[in-house]
Amino acid sequence: QVQLVESGGGLVQPGGSLRLSCAASGFTFSRYRMSWYRQAPGKERELVATISSAVTNTNYADSVKGRFTISRDNAKNTVYLQMNSLKPEDTAVYYCKAEGLASYWGQGTQVTVSS
After folding, report:
1. How far apart are CA 36 and CA 75, in angstroms?
2. pLDDT tens sequence across 22-42
3. CB 50 within 8 A of CB 69
4. Partners of 98 in beta bridges
5. What do you get for the CA distance between the two ends of the chain, in Å?
6. Concatenated DSSP letters for 10-77?
7. Confidence tier at 54 by pLDDT (50, 70, 90)
8. Over the range 54-92, which residues count as b (16 or more CB within 10 Å of their CB) and which as e?
């Protein structure tokens, strides 16, 4: 049974940091490209960051470049999103996605940036 379980979301003040984790099981994690997406209320889901299966390539949305870092630990079947200098506009539900022979989504974790 495939599972992607996100954690690490919460309420943080502007300028603060959070680290999201996405634990994967039920498929060969190391062969899948992993991504973080987010969806704010009333908006479409958007791509935040992607990391290749071999950890050699990363890509970021312009809105998060220089503030967010995606990483993965293939030994732990986990992908991370380190979010620094958070802004109110980063408030959204954050989802991880696995892409390879098939595509899988996690259930999401809420991130709220507010004073």
Report:
1. 19
2. 999 999 999 999 999 999 999
3. no
4. 34, 104
5. 40
6. EEE-TT--EEEEEEEESS-GGGSEEEEEEE-TTS--EEEEEE-TTS--EEE-TTTTTTEEEEEETTTT
7. confident
8. eeeeeebeeebeeebbbebebeebbbbbebeebeeebbb
